[in-house]
């Protein structure tokens, strides 16, 4: 009897050992997983290239020319929040507010306004007129283009000046400088 009990214990122990070995074998043979996180960043790349036309430095101040193209603004921006293009005149705050050509010798003035012709992308108005016509600040007076919720690749806005010539101006060279700024949102 004793040997039966002892062999039963041995058999039971052997059974447990086989089960444990199988469990260890299954745990060792089971699939193991790990992970690799992939991540990258893209910086905002927003820029403009302003190119004057030949007309910008050859304005006919005598004959009442209207809407002369004076330059283009090439735009690229990968930031979907968008940007604004604003325009400023170096002479705007001299004398009465508003953009003006000023004679370098005699100081006589010829007022003008700025106009932008834009692609409609990103909610932009296609034509924005009367910029700087009578004021030098304020979004409605200086904003030539407002882009939202889109990326812009190689789009061009045309810049025009509008004025009425004045044959009574003194003989002189008349000048102003427009500054166009891209502000990223």
Explain what the structure shows:
This protein is α+β, with helices and mostly antiparallel strands and 185 residues long. It has a single domain, classed as Immunoglobulin-like (Sandwich). It is built from 2 helices and 11 strands; from the N terminus they run H-E-E-E-E-E-E-E-H-E-E-E-E. It has a 5-stranded antiparallel sheet with strand order 1-2-9-6-7. Strands 8-3-11 form a 3-stranded antiparallel sheet. The radius of gyration is 37 Å and the shape is elongated. The relative contact order is 0.23. The mean pLDDT is 89.
Strand order of the largest sheet: 1-2-9-6-7
Mean pLDDT: 89
Query: What is the architecture at the second tier of CATH?
Result: Sandwich
Largest sheet: 5 strands, antiparallel
Task: Return residue spans where pLDDT drops below 50 for at least 5 consecutive residues.
Answer: none
Q: What is the end-to-end distance?
A: 92 Å
Enter the CATH topology name: Immunoglobulin-like
Number of helices: 2
Principal-axes geometry comes out as elongated
Sequence-ordered SSE layout with sheet pairings:
Elements: H1 2-29, E1 46-52, E2 68-77, E3 83-89, E4 100-103, E5 109-111, E6 113-117, E7 127-131, H2 139-142, E8 143-147, E9 152-162, E10 174-175, E11 178-184
Antiparallel strand pairs: 1-2, 2-9, 3-8, 3-11, 4-5, 4-10, 6-7, 6-9
